[in-house]
Design goal:
The protein is mainly alpha-helical. Helices cover 56% and strands 6% of the residues. This is Marginal zone B- and B1-cell-specific protein-like.
Length: 196
């Protein structure tokens, strides 16, 4: 019976020793390392971003790229099922489907000190951060989508899709596009804070 008591006493002491050793090791590691933390907050939204019905100029490049992505994605799905070119009515229906579709996956996010749109089709989607979506963003993207279709025409856009030029390059990066270096605008978060 005495041997059993000694073993249990040793087990308790052994567990206490391991816990003390673990605690001191963790405390020492915390002192030696500067443990960082990540803080996420939504972007500060100004009145233009929250109230205007139109896409702010500094977000038009991202918006154009989103729209070109959605056009391309939908056209690839539709034409994959077809063995011949789309008819005029199929082309019109396809572009209308894109513009009338959901834009709820998109919003504004602060990325590397810049205000950017984020969502499928943009590299900003994978950047950690808080995206402020909803509100007027879906309406603005839908409006821009219909403007591109109205300005360029469904058949012209379909022709570009079938050509070697991408819709993103045609709509966004050519000399009149919002992503062309002469036209591209950005808005740094720091500049906006200075304006206040």
């Amino acid at each position: 019976m005495a041997a059993t008591v000694d073993c249990s006493a040793l087990s308790v002491l052994h567990v206490l020793f391991v816990l003390v050793l673990l605690f001191t090791t963790c405390a020492r590691a915390q002192k030696e390392q500067k443990l960082g933390s990540i803080k996420f907050s939504g972007p500060d939204v100004n009145s233009e971003e929250s109230e205007s019905l139109h896409m702010p100029d500094y977000l038009k490049c991202d918006a154009c790229r989103i729209i070109a992505y959605k056009f391309t994605e939908t056209l690839e799905k539709v034409t994959k099922k077809k063995t011949k070119a789309l008819s005029e009515s199929e082309i019109i229906d396809t572009f209308e489907e894109v513009c009338e579709g959901s834009w709820d996956d998109y919003g504004i996010k602060e990325v590397d000190g810049l205000k950017r749109l984020s969502g499928p089709g943009l590299e900003t989607k994978d950047v950690p951060g808080v995206m402020q979506g909803g509100g007027k963003w879906p309406f603005r993207l839908k409006e821009m989508c219909f403007n591109y279709v109205g300005n360029e025409g469904e058949e012209e856009l379909y022709g570009i899709f079938k050509s070697k030029m991408t819709l993103e390059k045609f709509l966004c990066k050519e000399k009149n596009g919002p992503c062309h270096p002469k036209n591209k605008k950005v808005k740094k978060v720091e500049e906006e804070k200075e304006e206040l």
